What does this fold into?
Amino acid sequence: MPIYQYLCPKCNLKFELKRSFSDESIVVCPKCQNGASRLFAPVPIIFKGSGFYATDNRKGVSEDAGKEDKKEDKSGAESAEK
It folds into this structure.
């Protein structure tokens, strides 16, 4: 069952309740017995592992190695033209 956070507008008490989806939607404050409203919080996002950045998708290949390959291709193309 999920745990929800509630806030009482009368006494400003914040509390948590385990609520089933089939439970009533009306929640009563345990302190003053007034109706409480549900608080909505952003969901945390956790990034684990690699692959989230442009530099992570080519492991083992450095930038210098890519530049050398391009130089060899150009020199090979020039010698083939002659």
Notes: The mean pLDDT is 75. Residues 3-39 form one domain. The two ends are 76 Å apart (CA to CA). The helical segments are 63-81.
